[in-house]
Amino acid sequence: MEDIIFLGLNLGAWITIVTVLSMFLTLLFTKLREDVAFLGVIAVLLLTGVLDTKEALGGFSSGSVVVIGVLFAVLAGLVHTGVLQWIVRYLLGTPKNYSAAVVRLMLPVAALSSVLSNTTVVALFVGIVKMWGKKLNIAPSKLLIPLSYASGLGGVCTLIGTPPNLIISGLYTTDTGEQLNIFSTTIPGLVCLAVGVLSILALRKLLPDRRSAEESFEKTTDYTVEMLVPADCPHIGETVKEAGLTNVEGGRLIEIVRYDKEVISPVPADEFLMGGDRLVFAGRVAEIIHLQKSHGLVNADHPVFSINELDKKRQLHTAYIMPGCPLAGKRMSNTTIEHDHQFTLVAVARKGERISESPRDIELKAGDSLLIECPRGWKDTGGIQRLQFVDDPSILPYSGSKTLLSSLIMIAMIVLSSLEIMPLLQSAMLAAIAMLVFRCCTPTQVMKAIDWNILMIFAGSVVIGTAIQKTGMAEVMANGMMSLCGDNPLLVMAMMCSAGTFLTEFISNTAAGAIFYPIVYQAAVSMGVSPLPFIISLMIAVSSSFATPIGSPTHMLVYGPGGYRFGDFLKIGIPMNFIILAVNLIIVNLIYSF
Q1: End-to-end Cα, the chain, rounded Å
Q2: What confidence category does residue 509 fall into, taking pLDDT thresholds of 50, 70 and 90?
Q3: Residue 361: CB partners within 8 Å, gap ≥ 6?
Q4: Is 57 exposed, middle or buried (0-12, 13-18, 19+ CB in 10 A)?
Q5: For 279-290, what is each residue's pLDDT tens digit?
């Protein structure tokens, strides 16, 4: 492949370029899962001979990828002993104004995100922030974007705070033999965080004031109607299917409440109708009420289906459809997911507004909020991929000796690594073993906590970086940049960080880091300067995605609950991108010498 040269690049380089671009376009315009896309890239690079078997599988044995996997076990111990929930519940307090609320929210979130998974931290905060905002009379949309931004800014403050830092530092160690300290990015990260908080306060008018999806769900009588089966109803003794009540014009039957308070939901087609049954329908109320004439039903004199009157056997949950969720683009009526997972779809909201159509006939989209009814104590078994459920934030796990113990284990892991008593991989493994030995979590809980899809993406990112470096792309692109910028390292750094910030708005920040690392490193080597400031600035740049909701999983976690629109992120995110980029370049050059 080295013998075939076109525009300065060999055949292997062109295969890599086409493969990576194809992956980006596939992820942008299709619903293919990210882990499958990265696996496809690995397969193409291996089958075409761009990489040999050892190189193609090297991502799975990369130390940084192993560290990420081990940290999932540590996180499981913190979650199951109630450490994170305890912090979330008691940290926010009652600030007197919006500015104080933003500071009170962003700083703890950033601190937690510096040592824990950003996605986990935001998922834990979403529910409580909505309740907190209601208490403070602040719209959730004014708080949830700052919540997501804080997690990203906090993540860059340590090497373990965000996966790109681990991937980039691992590649740097491989190239130089130098092990970076866990706090290598702390000072520039903290400066960017401080500027980020001040920027949110200065740009607060750009944050939208929108209703959350939950507000549109609060009054159930707006989208549900109850009918009573009178004693003279001609359909008594018939099954729901025989009576033609399973799916009716404008909606569907979601539950039956018997005279003895027995609740039947979901309603099977062979369920018999009895006199005195209350039939609860969801959908377009104006059309459903025609059942009074067509089926001999009457209005229920006192609706029992309301959020405040749920009995002990059932509860309502809110779920959000994440990008890549199998339900996106489908109608619930065309799936068996309700039957398989024992829940009933009651209503759908989009951009903060409830959709008045029959919920099961709505074509679902990423960012939609679903109101579902399920048995009390129901938990998703994990079979609903990327459908984010928000549990009752008032539920707090038991806090006791293990809560303190798991906290000490995490602190010990950080201290051992930061003082260079042992490498991060070993200290993380020791912490994970301690979590299991002291029963802060079980092996089953650890296995459930590991996100194998994310590990596949990280491994694929490392492989892409290897291909870019091996095929000479890094050297050619680095030389191209230097021909534009001369030998000015600051201009080269600015160009690469700008490109990294832009690209990470559309793809995984881990992939962006792996793609730009070999180019940045090669540029520094070619100019004869230290690559360290380039590496540090790149870590911050690829985690500075503020302008699109698809730029970060945490943005999508708040997208539905905040009732946001795509343009909401653009309005405040574009100024944030430029501000953090400028601060990143300034502070890194002040701290680190070329």
Answers
A1: 35
A2: confident
A3: 331, 333
A4: middle
A5: 888 777 767 777
